[in-house]
Amino acid sequence: MAGKSTIRYLMLSLLLTFLLVLQAREKKDNNNASLTYFIQKEKSFGADTIALREFLTPLRQRALKGDVVKQKAVYYALMGRGTSRKIGQINTISTAYYEKASDLATQFEDEALGLWVQIELANYYYRFNLLEQSLPYFMTASFKIDDIPYDDQINPDESYRSLGFFFCTIGEYKDAIHCLKEAAFLAPDSSEMKTSILDNLALCHLHEKDTTVALAYLNDAKAMALQIDAKARLARVNGMLAMVSLGQGELDSALHYVDQDVMLSEESGDKTNQQYAEFIKAKVLMAKGDMHAAELLLDELGEELKSNPSKTDFLIEVEQLRLKIAEHKRDSEMELAIRRNLGMLKDSSIYGEDAQVIQRARVLAAKERYLNEASITNLKVQQGRFARNMYIVVLVLGIGILIISYIDFRRKMFARHHRYEKKVLAYRLEKTLLDQKLEQAHKTLADHLRFLTDKNRQIESLQREIVRINKSTLAEIEEKNGKLKQLLQSHILKEDGWQNFKMTFDEAYPNYYNQLKKGIPELTENNIRFIMLQKLGLTAAETANVLGISLEAIKKNKQRLKQKLGDKYEEVMEII
Q1: b/e per residue, 56-88, with b = 16+ CB within 10 A?
Q2: H helices then E strands: how many in the chain?
Q3: Is the dihedral of CA 251, 252, 255, 257 positive or negative?
Q4: Which residues form a coiled coil (predicted)?
Q5: Which of 1, 230, 242, 256 is the most exposed, fewest CB within 10 Å of its CB?
Q6: Half-sphere exposure of 133 toward its Cβ, with a 13 Å CA cutoff?
């Protein structure tokens, strides 16, 4: 009897728990639906932040039957979004709104809310091309989003789409495709959002050289854009189809698609897309051999772009295409004028810097993204089994223990790998920034000397870190991956680095290199490099680091040089 009473008690407790969970789920779904309504309507207010604030008032005044802190976090994030759209750049007002939203999300300890706020912050910087600032927020969100059920998330379709767009921008196309597929699954059918997701999926597959799949997505996007009469989106799809046809050498099809792109862009009032479509059309005309028509189109496009300083990079691309036409025509006067104009445009713009920022962000993202998809899938399967068998108490307890043990094991493994990857990433970023600093400097000898000094500091720091890691629990990871040792080797000056250094050295000390070669012909190239570094005042240890050899090897080099030169050794030392 006692046994039956115990079982009955357990069953009633389980039933009560299930009902409470069901009630909480229904409440959360209703609250999320209300928040989604405000989030989607926010876009319609444009730059009118006063009307937006009035519209969002219920989120601040407890007018909804939901969590007040959560509603306030959404309110501040949407106000941040609206004010940034009105001001048109990063600003202190929007930043303050976003910080309040972030603080509230942290205080509320809701993973779904925290995820949404992270993506809103990321989009804030991404909209203004500040990829480096947006990267930490996108990466944090990417680690969390697959672990949070769709039903718990706030606007999951837009969240996945934002992540997909970001990864596509920085060149992580496999991650972008994963996120965009999730977004396509969640997005409403026959909607502008789903059309944009499909054509971006096509773009990612084109970058992955998977033209067949890309064309399938483009055709789906085109059909959907026609169905909902989204002319601007249809124009972009036709533009992409034109580029595919051009790449495949189907010039008549390319011309047809690009003409559709121009016409639809003009009808929808999308001047920017129209200009880019005309640029593609000029490429098609050039491929067809109609240089005159292409030249007229580019001349007209160039005149339009001259009045807009923000499109200087695009104007440079137009001028480069015009240069090809001039070279084809063998018009030296036209070619000279275009080259002069290109020089002035590049001097007056930040041309090329965006590519460097994207490249740096791509490196950071690649190093951060190391989650094992197989492990995540396995965890989801286990969680699914737990949910399906939750009515059987013994099985629930057994699965619960297994999951807790697994998570604890994975957490420990993840923490070790995370610490290691953070160290590698920090040293690689420091090296990247140092290389970029030299690239962007005037490249004087003083710049090179500072570069070599900073490089030596990094090498010594990296050597100490390798010693520390080899004595820690991370030794096995470093032994297996060897990333820090590879990074240490990458600090050694390669041949191209030596050539750049030599050019700068010759500017500071004209004919020094040639005089050494002619005056002491027995000197090898390695001897001269050693002498040049000594002339800059580098210590033996610093010289060893730059050359990638040991301190003992430096001493031997000095001895061999002395033996080789004999009496001339003192002459060389006096020159230094």
Answers
A1: beebeeeebebbeebbbbbbbbbbbbbbbbbee
A2: 28, 0
A3: negative
A4: 452-494
A5: 1
A6: 12
Query: What is the C-alpha to C-alpha distance for residues 549 and 567, in angstroms, rounded to an integer?
Result: 27
Place of tokens 């969680």: 383
**Separation between Cα atoms, residue 335 and residue 540, nearest integer Å:** 52
pLDDT of amino acid 92:
94
User: Which range scores top for mean pLDDT: 138-147, 372-381, 498-507, 527-536?
Assistant: 138-147
Distance CA 291, CA 282 (A): 9
Residue 205, CA atoms < 13 Å, CB-side half-sphere: 20
Predicted pLDDT of residue 64: 62
Quick check: 372 pLDDT over 60? no
From CA 316, how far away is CA 347, in angstroms rounded?
A: 11
Task: List the beta strands (DSSP E) in 310-367.
Answer: none
The Cα 34–Cα 58 span in angstroms is 10
pLDDT digits (tens, 9 = 90+) for 116-141: 999 999 999 988 878 878 888 888 89
Burial class of residue 347 in the structure, from the number of CB atoms within 10 Å of its CB (0-12 exposed, 13-18 middle, 19+ buried): exposed
Query: What is the number of other CB atoms lying within 10 angstroms of the CB of residue 188?
Result: 9
Nearest to 88 by CA among 141, 133, 49, 131: 49
At position 364, the amino acid (one-letter code) is: L
Task: Judge whether 156 and 119 are in contact, CB under 8 Å.
Answer: no
Rama region for 441: left / alpha / beta (φ>0; ψ in -120 to 50; rest): beta
Q: Which helix (H) or strand (E) holds 344?
A: helix 332-347
Contacts of 97 (CB under 8 A, 6+ apart): 76, 77, 79, 80, 83
Q: What is the pLDDT of residue 370?
A: 39
